Amino acid sequence: MSDQKYSTIHYHNYLEIDKLLSIQNTRSAALGDAAHDETLFIIMHQVYELWFKQIMTELDSVCILFREEQVNEDNMNTVLLRLKRISTIVSLMVEQIHVMETLTPLDFLDFRDYLFPASGFQSMQFRMIESTLGLREEDRMTYHGKSYKIVFNEEQKARLEGIESGGSLFELVERWLERTPFLRFEGFDFLSSYKEAVDRMLHKEQASISGSEYLDERMKAMRLKMLGDSNSYFKHVLSKEEHERMMAEGECRLSYEATIAALLINLYRDKPILNIPFNLLTELMNIDELLTTWRYRHAQMVMRMIGNKIGTGGSSGHDYLAATAEKHKIFKDLHNISSLLIPRSELPDLPEGVERNLGFYFSGKK
Amino acid sequence: MSDQKYSTIHYHNYLEIDKLLSIQNTRSAALGDAAHDETLFIIMHQVYELWFKQIMTELDSVCILFREEQVNEDNMNTVLLRLKRISTIVSLMVEQIHVMETLTPLDFLDFRDYLFPASGFQSMQFRMIESTLGLREEDRMTYHGKSYKIVFNEEQKARLEGIESGGSLFELVERWLERTPFLRFEGFDFLSSYKEAVDRMLHKEQASISGSEYLDERMKAMRLKMLGDSNSYFKHVLSKEEHERMMAEGECRLSYEATIAALLINLYRDKPILNIPFNLLTELMNIDELLTTWRYRHAQMVMRMIGNKIGTGGSSGHDYLAATAEKHKIFKDLHNISSLLIPRSELPDLPEGVERNLGFYFSGKK
Amino acid sequence: MSDQKYSTIHYHNYLEIDKLLSIQNTRSAALGDAAHDETLFIIMHQVYELWFKQIMTELDSVCILFREEQVNEDNMNTVLLRLKRISTIVSLMVEQIHVMETLTPLDFLDFRDYLFPASGFQSMQFRMIESTLGLREEDRMTYHGKSYKIVFNEEQKARLEGIESGGSLFELVERWLERTPFLRFEGFDFLSSYKEAVDRMLHKEQASISGSEYLDERMKAMRLKMLGDSNSYFKHVLSKEEHERMMAEGECRLSYEATIAALLINLYRDKPILNIPFNLLTELMNIDELLTTWRYRHAQMVMRMIGNKIGTGGSSGHDYLAATAEKHKIFKDLHNISSLLIPRSELPDLPEGVERNLGFYFSGKK
Amino acid sequence: MSDQKYSTIHYHNYLEIDKLLSIQNTRSAALGDAAHDETLFIIMHQVYELWFKQIMTELDSVCILFREEQVNEDNMNTVLLRLKRISTIVSLMVEQIHVMETLTPLDFLDFRDYLFPASGFQSMQFRMIESTLGLREEDRMTYHGKSYKIVFNEEQKARLEGIESGGSLFELVERWLERTPFLRFEGFDFLSSYKEAVDRMLHKEQASISGSEYLDERMKAMRLKMLGDSNSYFKHVLSKEEHERMMAEGECRLSYEATIAALLINLYRDKPILNIPFNLLTELMNIDELLTTWRYRHAQMVMRMIGNKIGTGGSSGHDYLAATAEKHKIFKDLHNISSLLIPRSELPDLPEGVERNLGFYFSGKK
């Protein structure tokens, strides 16, 4: 019956509109006086949960494409497009807070009492998103000193543990970066070459600043201080031991090899084989930043709704959310690559063989 | 059992998450090869339907507050806040098209064939929104020469007819405007006073332009043409007969009395009793404009998705939608009030008695 | 020469396009190798400065309208519309950060060195906006332990001091709130009436929770804790002494009388005379929140651009900005009013005389 | 004096703030009564002109990179990032219309008379953007039956003519597409292979529809009509003669070879060498669509501001702008590629040699 695909379907049935519109049952109407704004409250959260489902759909597919030993190059742009879709959705989620803010504090009081102890902390899907991206249990804010999983049932807990132990996007990207073949390639040693460039640049700048007739002593001191500050950042990346100390102390998370690879991608992003990897790392930072913004705006909205009062879930609403905004950021180490960049003009030319290998077969074979 | 409100509830149950997340069943998976992007397609439409439900919730409540013979002044700001909520939601709906646009034409082809003949034309709730706002059957684009209702079942048709015959927001606002007591009040005749001001202004300007040493003949002619053009607009409002001819010929819809009242509200919007009415008329225009933008962006998105091909519903996709953008605008007459405004400096002062009546009791009684 | 207004003007001259487009002179081109992206960097900041000028234009006009002993009621909606314009502009400023983010860290390095020690800290207009809104010197982050004014010249310092001592919008709004006549009016004492309602509500709830068959002991304890928490907030407002202690210790800033008035406006916002005041307080919170978001997004963008490196102005870029986000919030006390609200159903009816005085003359005199 | 780059600079001087803030000189203040909102009007337009300059900066640089005989592959991602920057800016320009809409029609009347005959039609930079993208004189709306250039002086006209005759982005992209080597390559003839796939697909579908037990006669007819409609679109691309007839009659503009290349890029977008070209064509459509939206929203705003009155420039304001929205779209032919796509599952596999040539040297040489 291969042509069953020609069976017809109505918009109404396809989208299961009857079921969809039957699940906005307000507690205020069921248990007391119907509060006009409770429908909005339910719908806003249901819309968020639908977007969460979509984000999980994309994340799961991206993880599968990344999980292969050798990521298929024909899939890389698909990965990029799906990550961009996630960004676009999270952008929309940020905008949606404006709808939430049309619910005034006074109107919220008309049904707030019925919601106890329900709370956004209990959104399973949002936790899954964070964990799939790479947030670890130990990176999370605790909940009254206990695990964030305490509000979930056994089956849900097991599901979250499965995700936490199963290879997050962070780990997949880390391994993919570590596999970059161009760190040491055909006689080219990226790290040495970069170190030399950094040293050369720092020395040149130091001499120029010290000898400059355009800077008075205070300004010279300030510039040299900035230079020294940059220098200390460079040192971290120049030393594997220092990097591993930082990892051990939780100051960074991305492995040394992956960090160097991300640096290489950022510096040589114009080479064809690094175009999509560069855009892909950028998109991971976009998602991270947008989720951070969403948490921050969420915290602002809660402050507006209940002031400093305790939330329906029993937490200190605003403060908890505000604290998670930065703390739950996942790809911080990618943001920090900026500290390690040097101007393109300071970079040495690549050997011809390396250059060819960063281009297309069609161009290179000639 | 008055304290049943203290029964506890979990986020998961409150929002009926299980049901909500069980209704994204892709046809591609059921009837052929699962297409990754079909989930997005379903979720995007379900989110729209949730927002439509919320808009209907607000519209219904606003209509009830407006339906009273004498609208309760204590409800006016509530009406305004609910209309603003609708604007905020439609703004978000416009932004959501960016998510839709992450679905590329090629990926859409992976499941497009399964959707026949489902189509957005079959969204009952969107038609309800348009009709509740005031779109009449005769104002609508026809569907292959037939009524837009043809895609609905009998029960749905009946529901739409009920709305169409039951007093739309347009009609309620029209009647509310017609009841404005200040058109003729304590010896003040707004229309005469306005006519005089318009005449005075036009004559003064005509003389100034004609005698100006700053304008050459071509510029004088151009300015006088513009003045004449304005003049002809003023004439419409100065003559009830002309207005009724225009109504009969479908050039405008809002009654003469309501038009004059809307003009008065716009000109004297700074008077306390007219503050909220002015903001409320502005908000109706916002909603109208945002819905127009949504239809327009929707048409653009369809063009991108299927080019000039016929849509799954059998219509000429893009062209139909683009045509409805302006045609389905409802409060055009409010937008046109701008043509009738004259600078505040040209307006005569209000008699003291009228002035007091446009203010607060607290201020006026002294 | 009264008709000089008829002299003609070309778009190009009206907007002084030649001058406007002649002031994007890149340092990289002047002092070294032209960096493509420096033009963007200049234009982005110039656009911000233009918006700052517009915001100052609106703020100054609003302050003038508020400065009168008895604010003219005919100006209140104008104030509201101008505050909304500020919100709209700050919203756009937040969106503009997306343009800034198209400047990649690597491209920024091509001209960053030329900018020393220029920095956004040196924007005079932004400081003026903050001070005019009501940010005091003592509320600000210090700049390397010194006054933020250190980067300005003497004339600029004097101007900022003038603003700081001249009556900010915060102070004008505070005085306007304090003048609200309805706190004690025709035998109605708002504060006593509110206190009684709060007590009644708290007792009723406490009894209900304790006796509820729907709550187990842990849940009862949690709810009672939340109730107690609310209670402690109410206490602050119930005691002028406590409020003054909090003011002295910097925990709040808005005077006791003004706080009570803001509470009254929020609770009785549906009364006509309080409609615009309520919308106006909401708009002040919007502006505050949007500026906070702008600072926060700005901090995120800086993190992305330079990682943890020191900014061109010598500050710790990201951390400084992130810290100002909340710290420079001005109308926190208005956000906190939410903590003091009680459901409308708990409010006592207003005496008829009071009710009439909160309405329109036209309605009340009948 | 190589270290002149260390000369210091203040934010205030770098951005030429004094000049920037000195050019908002209102005509209302100079010639009559100062109108509060005129400053906003000037600033809004100046901000637009600054963005126009930035867009021109990007367009000029992109055209230079594209103008080389063989576009340097190391520049392709830079081109993409600059086109995305343009999209981001135009998105912001669309949002800015909300600021424009805070200027109410009544307030506009306070200074509208002073602006004659200035008009947005006189923005030189906006015309340059349209022409550089590829809008030809003959594609433009005429201005009272005359060339749009009539409002410019001789030097400006010459500049616009230079752009119009100098190779627009449309033409550069067209030539770049025409050079695609993969249309006929190592024994693979894309067009024949595509034609066969289309025929195979159409026949299979026709048979399935005709024989389907799931469709009644009306539905069969409808589906076959849709199929026939698709078929007629395919025919255009299958025949060079037909395409050239369409070009001659102005129904399309992009050359036959370029159209086929764009089709190939869309169908095989997952191959590494086509990743950036695909994203780049998408970005051109984004820019086109966003500019269309901007014109459309602009038209809406004008309708709101002056209703149906004639604009200060003497044109029929809203109608002119609304008509340009679609008419001035430049890359319509790229949007129409969607009509020609077929599902990936219908595409034949590429010969191994071709496949390798669409990949990276590093992967292919093994």
From TrEMBL, chains A, B, C, D:
Q: In which pathway does it act?
A: Amino-acid degradation; L-tryptophan degradation via kynurenine pathway; L-kynurenine from L-tryptophan: step 1/2
Residues reported in the UniProt entry to bind heme: 298
Keywords noted in UniProt: Dioxygenase, Heme, Iron, Metal-binding, Oxidoreductase, Tryptophan catabolism
| Entry annotated with the keyword Metal-binding | yes
- An example Gene Ontology molecular-function term: metal ion binding
The record's comment on cofactor binding reads:
Binds 1 heme group per subunit.
Residues where substrate binds = 112, 312
What Pfam family is a match, any one?
Answer: Trp_dioxygenase
Task: Give the top-rank taxon of the lineage listed in the UniProt record for this protein.
Answer: Bacteria
**InterPro entries reported for this sequence:** Trp/Indoleamine_2_3_dOase-like, Trp_2_3_dOase
- Catalytically driven reaction(s): L-tryptophan + O2 = N-formyl-L-kynurenine
| Required cofactor(s) | heme
Among the record's GO biological process terms, what is one?
Answer: L-tryptophan catabolic process to acetyl-CoA
EC id: 1.13.11.11
Share what the entry says about its subunit structure, partners included: Homotetramer.
Similarity remark: Belongs to the tryptophan 2,3-dioxygenase family.
What does this gene product do? Heme-dependent dioxygenase that catalyzes the oxidative cleavage of the L-tryptophan (L-Trp) pyrrole ring and converts L-tryptophan to N-formyl-L-kynurenine. Catalyzes the oxidative cleavage of the indole moiety.
Protein known as: Tryptophan 2,3-dioxygenase
Classification lineage: Bacteria, Pseudomonadati, Bacteroidota, Saprospiria, Saprospirales
